[in-house]
Design brief:
It contains 4 helices and no strands. It is mostly helical and 91 residues long. It has one domain. It is globular. The termini are far apart.
Length: 91
């Protein structure tokens, strides 16, 4: 099996630390515009900092879970989140 010990300052470890901070900050989801504006802004910063397909998948998964916890109170479409975070249309 291909197990590896990642250095503490590796891009992957730094990305997971940042992701964990997002989880801790936003895991208790709220139904307010202010909360969602902050979630989307911080998610965009996360993606812009790490700029990998994996980082995008992580942040979109978090947004999907936060949304799922709020249905039907909050219905944010994944396409608009994708555009907001990446600045482009999905293909």
């Amino acid at each position: 099996m291909g197990e590896v010990k990642l250095p503490k300052d590796s891009p992957e470890v730094l990305m997971f630390r940042d992701y964990w901070k997002l989880l801790e900050t936003y895991w208790i989801s709220e139904v307010s515009e202010e909360y969602w504006d902050k979630v989307v802004a911080d998610s965009k910063r996360f993606y812009e900092r790490h700029k990998t397909p994996f980082a995008l998948d992580l942040v979109l998964s978090l947004l999907n879970e936060l949304e799922r916890k709020n249905i039907p109170e909050r219905n944010v479409q994944i396409e608009s989140r994708y555009r907001t975070i990446t600045g482009s249309m999905s293909e």
